[in-house]
Each structure stands twice: as C-alpha cells, then as structure tokens.
Design brief:
Ribosomal Protein S5, domain 2; 5 strands; alpha+beta
C-alpha cells in the first residue's frame, strides 16, 4: 500500500458507495472533482463525513480524493465516513481500536425495505372503509 503513495478505503451506506484515497498533505478534500464544502452545504453532513479525521486528530495530515456514487446526501456522507475510517486503518493499524470504539468501522446495515404486493408501500396498507 505504501508504495502507491496513498491509502485506500471503500465505504458503503444505504445505496451509496465511496472510494477514498488518503494522501499525506495539509487537509484538502476533493469529492467527485469538486471541493468538499461545495458538495455538502449542510454543516451536519460535513461533520458526519469528517468524523474519523476529527477523532484521530489527523484532519490537517491528509489530503483526500473521494469518488462517491449512488444514494442521497446523507447516504453519501455516511459512505465517505466509512471509507475514510477504513483508509486511516490502512495508514496506521494502531488507530483501529479508537475508530472501533466510536463505531466508525462498522457498516450501517439499514437499507430501504422493499415494497410488498397488496400494499401501498413497504408496510402501509390501503385505507379500510367500513361503508
């Protein structure tokens, strides 16, 4: 991994998949060719995505190039968070217990439930009329 010059991690959340490359640097983050702040306008989503870097106090030690596809804003932020955490573990194995204690290495298994036949949505039934 070290001969490539970067550390790789892939993260998933809902339908979103993020491929993260961490380079030694000063903290510049580019997502799909755009600056990170442009893509995620909400402060909460930005904090969510950068949580692994904040927890390990390495926000200004790495530049990140991220490609994310699928899902919405929230799913993409969660996928980026998962990918960054995995890439940090690839860079330094000693960070694994710290990231695990904050729940950043666990993939969130919740996905949208499929629609069932005879129902309006996954669980909602048609309205019953007595008369």
């Amino acid at each position: 991994m070290k001969d490539k010059g970067y550390f790789y991690g892939m993260g998933r959340r809902k339908c979103a998949v993020a491929r993260v490359r961490l380079f030694p640097g000063r903290g510049a983050i580019v997502v799909n060719g755009q600056p990170f702040e442009e893509l995620f306008a909400r402060e909460g989503l930005r904090k969510e995505a950068l949580k692994p870097l904040l927890v390990t106090d390495s926000l200004d030690k790495f530049n990140a190039t991220i490609k994310v596809a699928g899902g919405g804003n929230s799913g993409q932020a969660g996928a980026i968070r998962h990918g960054i955490a995995r890439a940090l573990v690839a860079s330094d194995e000693n960070l694994k217990p710290l990231l695990r204690s904050h729940g950043l290495l666990t993939r969130d298994p919740r996905v949208k439930e499929r629609k069932k036949y005879g129902l309006v949505r996954a669980r909602k039934a048609k309205q019953y009329t007595k008369r």
